């Protein structure tokens, strides 16, 4: 059955994830935090027994293409459930806060409900930053890897993010190699970021942890425990460079490796440049006392969806609205950034222009072009439907939070912070004291924004379950 084959794939992926828990366990031993080390070792051992056991139990079943979305969502839910155990065991928090903290890290949203301070065990700080780093690349590599297993099902959904590039590059039979290269690029970017932070004055330990947040565009900064962080222009510029590197799309580096220089002038890269210039000029005019580095730091923090700067606290309303729009648009496809993605934003703008143009000249034949490629009506409709689903989901979240007692404006900013995975559209203390229901709603919205809406919403279709149970 498709369900059993999907379960086999999910538990196999969770087995791989469990190996990442060995790193915080070793860090705990290094810092003599034996209680924390015991928690991680128990999660690892028991998790391995359960995951390998169920993976073996469901082995032998042929995995159908329809199971792809179930595998994708099941893997994320499984990783969240495994990740919340250390939070719940080490800190005196409720289970909903542990879920929120895990989802916030894995989706690179960067909203902290526990409250980072000097009392945190070093291994738990490492674990949080590692979760952010894994979540940043995980959503990209997992999706691309699944392409090679379930090309017909996942491929149709990720066509806008990966399919066109994959077909153009001739990767149909080499998708797994692409995932490996993307992971290698991610390692290299992280290593370069660490070295750059060390040169800029951070110690090796803090440079490593901050690099996890920057390259993944995660937003879980060490600012609460290092008050002087980013007060120097050198550290700001390091963050600017590597936030942009994380939000430009890992496929761009594949083009560099293959010396496809013409692909460096992609539409998304141009949009990033234009957005950066407009944001810097606009905020510099409104706040002329700010240095160029500080302004760029704020702009890149929002447009990369990293959310290092709480823009709602320090910017006038006009600049805040612009940063809000930047966060909603997001970064490039195939990047660690969240949001709608620049590719979809470009297609929507062209679609609106064509709609107005055909209203003026009904007989005109108009087509949407992206990087020299013409896109059909079906593809355009998919993107418009996705954008509609994005805002419909945000509206549903706002309604749920409002009905549960939150203010309308506060609910709107919270939901937009979660679904875009920016996390900085509203002060962090606004998330303290929320009810269990509100925490779980926001955690679900974070997952929807990160895993991709279609991959989750398709599971609510009765036709999907009828087909998969027959398979």
Automatic annotation (TrEMBL):
Instruction: Give the transmembrane region(s).
Output: 12-31, 37-58, 70-90, 131-150, 183-205, 237-257, 269-286, 318-340, 383-401, 440-461
Q: Which domain of life is it from?
A: Bacteria
A family per Pfam: TrkH
Task: For this UniProt record, give its keywords in alphabetical order, as a comma-separated list.
Answer: Cell membrane, Ion transport, Membrane, Transmembrane, Transmembrane helix, Transport
Report the principal subcellular site.
membrane
Query: What is the protein's membrane topology class?
Result: Multi-pass membrane protein
Localization in the cell: Cell membrane
Question: Which PANTHER family does this one have?
Answer: TRK SYSTEM POTASSIUM UPTAKE PROTEIN TRKG-RELATED
Family of the protein in this entry: Belongs to the TrkH potassium transport family.
Per its record, how is this protein called by name?
Answer: Trk system potassium uptake protein TrkG
Task: List the lineage, top down.
Answer: Bacteria, Pseudomonadati, Pseudomonadota, Gammaproteobacteria, Candidatus Comchoanobacterales
